[in-house]
Amino acid sequence: MSLKDNSLSRQLKTQGIILGSFVAIFWVLEFIDQVIFRGRLDVYGIIPHRLIGLRGILFAPFLHGSFGHLIANTVPFVILGWLVMIQETSDFWIVTLVTMIVGGVGVWIFATPGSIHIGSSILIFGYLGFLLARGYFQRNLASIIISVIVGLLYGGLVWGVLPSAPGISWQGHLFGFIGGVITARLIAKEKQYYR
């Protein structure tokens, strides 16, 4: 095995551990919430316009309303999360942090008072926004190819930023997406600066 193969293998292992850890946290928390707390952990989500609701910016992406909600979020989280990491694993942490803040604050300011917003879809839409915008901002072949592939596979998700069915946090989707686009711009600027 060459040094390059060994480095790629280590990188893939690290990425797998990161994504696996997130998914494990999602599933363990949902199991505990459903079995022990009977769904009462959801109050740690984002509660718009209430000071206590700001704590949800940190907790909401890790909480889900049901196992069905979690199942629906797990696969796109892993696929899009890994695509965010494909060029640099550190991009995942930056996109995740910025998306949580921008998405969470956007939900807290603009969502309906008294509602509770939970779910990793805020991150999924952040990753989607990042991946779609990265090709435009970075203008390198790898980024453009990933943007096109993501657009073909997941472009239909963009409609999730619009109001749809009750109980779905379109605000989380919208502001998560915006957080991802902002991060794509910030990372592209940083990469241009260090060239």
TrEMBL record:
Membrane topology according to the record: Multi-pass membrane protein
Pfam families found in the cross-reference section: Rhomboid
Major site of localization recorded for this protein: membrane
Record bears the keyword Transmembrane: yes
Keywords linked to the UniProt accession: Membrane, Transmembrane, Transmembrane helix
Transmembrane segments: 12-29, 66-85, 92-110, 116-133, 140-162, 168-188
Superkingdom field: Bacteria
Keyword Transmembrane helix: yes
Domain (Peptidase S54 rhomboid): residue spans on this chain: 57-188
Protein name: Rhomboid family protein
Gene source species: Gloeothece citriformis (strain PCC 7424)
